[in-house]
Amino acid sequence: MVVEALLLDLDKTLVNVEDFTDYCSALAELDAAGYAPRVRGPETYWGRCTKTVMDVLISLGGAEWARANEIVRRYELIGAERAVAMPYLDLFLAATERLPKAIVTLLDAEATSLVLQRFAIKTQAVVARVPGIRPKPHPDPVIHALKLLGAEPDGAVMVGDSEWDEKAADAAGVRFIAVTNGRQNHNFKTPYIANNLKEAAKLIQEL
Ligand SMILES: [Mg+2]
Fold first, then answer.
1. Which UniProt keywords are given for this protein, alphabetically ordered (predicted)?
2. pLDDT tens readout for residues 171-201
C-alpha cells in the first residue's frame, strides 16, 4: 500500500524538546497542586519526570486538566526555545516533501507552533495537546489528524519514537515506523524499525 500521508510525532522524533524542558520542576508544581497520576500510559524511555507529567495529564479532564496544563506548558515553552533538531531532520523533510503531513504531539499547542516555526517544519495539519481531544496513547489525535488531512488510515503512516505513538497509531489502524534513536530496549511491535530519521525516510519510500 502506497504512502499517501504522514503523521509525525514531534518530540524526539523531529526535534528534541524533552531534554531542554524541566519536567521535574513541572512535576513538583503538579505535586504541590495535588495532581497525581490515576492512570498510566505505556512504559517508554522518557525520563521519570516526563513520564509522570504525561501520566498526570492523561489522568485529568476539564478544569483540572486546564490548571495542570498551564503549569506544564510554562516549562515546555522554555524547552521549545532551546530545543535542537534530531539527526537528519532536514534530510527527512526533503525526502518526504511531496507527502501531506500532520504533527501529532503530546506537547502544548503554543510550544508546538514555536518549535515548528524555529525549525521551518511545514505541515498541513497540527494536532497538539489541546482540550477536547484525548491525547496519545488514545487514537483520537491520530484520527483527528487523518480527518484534517482527508486521509484514510490505510494510506497513512505514523512516525514516532515512543511506545505511546505506536499505541495510538495501532488503535487508529495506521501503520507505524518506530524511530528508536539507537535504543536497544524497546517494546515496539511494528516490523518497521528505524534507528533515525534517515532510515525512517528510506522505509517510507520502500513501504
Ligand atoms: Mg516523541
1. Hydrolase
2. 999 999 999 999 999 999 999 999 999 999 9
What are the backbone angles phi and psi of residue 141, rounded to the nearest 5°?
Answer: -70, -30
DSSP-based three-state secondary structure for 195 = coil
Separation between Cα atoms, residue 5 and residue 105, nearest integer Å = 16
Give 133 Cα–ligand 1 centroid separation in angstroms.
Answer: 18
Cα 102 to ligand 1 centre (Å): 14
76 and 99 fall within a common domain: no
Is the whole-model pTM more than 0.90? yes
The three three-digit cell numbers of residue 100, written as one number: 501531506
Number of domains in the chain: 2
Smallest CA-to-CA distance from 7 within 158, 109, 151 is with 158
